[in-house]
Design brief:
The chain is of the alpha/beta class. The protein is built from 14 helices and eleven strands. The chain has helices spanning about 5-25, 35-45, 85-95, 135-145, 160-165, 200-210, 255-270, 285-300, 320-335, 335-350, 355-375, 400-405, 410-415, 450-460, and strands at about 30, 55-60, 100-105, 150-155, 170-175, 195-200, 240-245, 275-280, 380-385, 420-430, 435-445. The protein has an eleven-stranded mixed sheet with strand order 1-3-2-4-6-5-10-11-9-7-8, sandwiched between helices. It is globular, with a radius of gyration of 21 Å. It starts with 6 loop residues before the first helix and ends in a 10-residue tail after the last helix. The protein binds glutamine.
Length: about 475
């Protein structure tokens, strides 16, 4: 992260950049201009130290912050003010980071395009007629456009890695339990994980060193000690074994995604890594299992937004009863994709269907985990595409939810298995005269982030990163 300047200069530059490009991107839903500048002044006056002292950052708007709003890009929470700050966010603040704003997202993190937002879509800085990916699309666009060097996102089925791939940046989803979920508005609690969006692997390692670690406020937070993430970054990958799943070479991949993937394999071979062809037979079933487990958990998590305990409350008419209050509040508060997930989730959990759908999906989930365990018995990491296609046009898949879900083929299985994974910029697709970034994905055994980051860093060193700034 650039430290060329003191905190007030860095934050001023970030806000100036935001003001100049955000009108074309719609990446931010709230900007804390005066507060961020005051925080930066205070940081400079107190000569505040810390690994992120004075660094401007952005937060996906499903991360609670004790000031401003936490909307999840939903009418349901449009006016919600969180009384507390998420643990991961507090750790960044304690490390000296300065929050410039909250970023746009798919409503309640449900989506792959950042179009399902009550604030309208975010646009890709590489081509503003295209989506930035989702659901952390605002965070990815903000980093890619050079507004902030670090943004937090959340990844339940790919929401950090896929937008990172579409925006040409680095997106890391740590192992389930590595980062506290306290203060992350829940989507699917057994899959949700906070992750980082940065321009470089080193920045990701630095940010993860700050946010990872046990938190008594999250019962699923791991006690596993965090090793040094920065030290090993420059150790060569010679002798490491990288697994390439046969199922990742699908005909459904865009030709440029297939080419960039092959080039990445060649780069790792040149670096001295051994490439091993493996089978992940359940990869193709990941989407079906994920789109049962995630909506099931979402339907339960979102039950609290009923207009009484939390969220938007509809105006009642004469004769309306309690049922009408729930029904109207939830119909007005939730957008169509969230409603679709709630209906899907309640259906698969309903008696008579629970075994056929939900329990079967859990069995598939266990098998997927076993598939990865088998591969990791012999290999250090898995290499596969992050997404089957480059960024698509705004609106292109909105009326076809299944087409949108299929975009998550390479990311959802990793959440089902609880593993760490990251997307790194690997090349470009040429589509209609535009250069669109394409990432590749590394997956590691649980709690092996240090080696995963090292493998990513060696790739970054070996490849041309000069064309990585979009002309937005
Ligand atoms: N696209 C996936 C979904 O819609 C993943 C979203 C996420 O990771 N939050 O559920």
């Amino acid at each position: 992260m650039s430290r060329a300047g003191n905190a007030p200069e860095l934050v001023r530059a970030s806000i100036d950049r935001l003001k100049s490009v955000n009108p074309r991107l719609n990446a931010f839903v709230e900007v804390f201009e005066s507060r961020a500048l005051a925080d930066a002044q205070a940081s400079a006056i107190n000569s505040k130290r810390g690994p992120l002292a004075g660094i401007p950052i952005a937060l996906k708007d499903n991360l609670c912050l004790a000031y401003g709003k936490t909307t999840c890009a939903s009418n349901m929470l449009r006016n919600y003010e969180s009384p507390y700050t998420a643990t991961a966010v507090q750790k960044l603040i304690d490390a000296g980071a300065i929050i410039v704003g909250k970023t746009n997202m798919d409503e309640f993190a449900m989506g792959s395009s950042c179009e399902h937002s009550c604030f309208g879509p975010t646009f890709n800085p590489w081509d503003v007629s295209r989506i930035p990916g989702g659901s952390s699309g605002g965070s990815a666009a903000a980093v890619a456009a050079g507004i902030v060097p670090l943004a937090l996102g959340s990844d339940t089925g790919g929401s950090v890695r896929q937008p990172a791939s579409h925006c040409g940046i680095v997106g890391v989803k740590p192992t389930y339990g590595r980062v506290s979920r306290y203060g992350l508005v829940a989507y699917a609690s057994s899959l949700d994980q906070i992750g980082t969006l940065t321009r470089t692997v080193e920045d990701a390692a630095l940010a993860l060193s700050v946010i990872c670690g046990h938190d008594p406020l999250d019962t699923t937070s791991s006690q596993e000690p965090l090793p040094d993430l920065l030290g090993p970054l420059n150790t060569p990958v010679e002798g490491l074994k990288l697994a390439v799943p046969r199922q990742a070479r699908s005909d459904a991949n865009h030709p440029d995604v297939a080419r960039v993937f092959d080039e990445a394999i060649a780069t790792y071979k040149q670096l001295g890594a051994t490439i091993v062809d493996v089978d992940l037979p359940l990869l193709d079933h990941g989407i079906a299992a994920y789109y049962i487990v995630a909506p099931a958990e979402a339907s339960s998590n979102l039950a609290r937004f009923d207009g009484i305990r939390y969220g938007h409350r509809a105006k009642l008419e004469q004769g309306d009863d309690l049922f009408d209050l729930y029904c109207k509040s939830r119909s007005e508060g939730f957008g169509p994709e969230v409603q679709r997930r709630i209906m899907l989730g309640t259906h698969v959990l309903s008696s008579g269907y629970y075994d056929a759908y939900y329990n079967t999906a859990l069995k598939v989930r266990r098998r997927i985990k076993q598939d990865f365990d088998r591969v990791f018995a012999d290999c250090h990491a898995v290499l596969m595409p992050a997404s089957p296609s480059p960024a698509w046009k705004v609106g292109e898949k909105l009326s076809d939810p299944l087409a949108m879900y299929l975009e998550d083929i390479y990311t959802v299985t990793i959440n089902l298995a609880g593993l760490p994974a990251m997307s790194i910029p690997a090349g470009f697709a040429s589509v209609e005269g535009k250069q669109l970034p394409v990432g590749v994905q590394l997956v590691s055994p649980a709690f092996d982030e240090a080696r995963m980051l090292r493998i990513a860093r060696q790739f970054e060193r070996a490849t041309d990163q000069s064309a990585r700034t979009p002309n937005v």
